[in-house]
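Need fresh eyes. Consider my entry:
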Amino acid sequence: MTKKVLDRRIPRTRAMLQQALNSLIPKKGYEAITIKDICEAANVGRSTFYAHYTSKDDLKRSGFEPLRKLLIDRQREALATARGDRSRSLGFSLTMFEHARDHRDHYRALVGSRGGTVSLGSIRKILSDLVRGELAATVDKNSADAIPRELIVQYVVGAYMAVMRWWLDGGAKLPPPRIDAMFRRLATQGILRVCS
């Protein structure tokens, strides 16, 4: 019984710490936030914070776990319904654009700060893992002119991150389904085919 109660407190405490950090970012900016600020906003002690996280950056990175799970689910659904065609390649893309649009105020508060670096690095890692997994079954490693899988991963993720930043910096005026369709078309058909 005691173990179950303790187990329930862990996610609740982590959620409170995450919420505290996220509420402080627009008010103070990521750089100015201290562990003390987070603990006060979450109404927990420093020892509680350090029982769960090693640093503010560690707390920020952990906040991307629900997004990672959501993107994995969306990609699986897209690939399962694709039935052999590549029309739903990069199935995480639309969900990521929707998430970015829904959190664009948070993005603006993080741009140019250490928090932005941590956030974009976390997103880049999540997307790299997704693309790497999707390519595992499709890249022919035995061909003499094969492009290394990791080069493809870095190319696709780098392009995605650049498009997402361009879109957010421009105010996310295009709806997520439209920017998603344009990105996936460029990524899967290539620039020469799209522009000709």
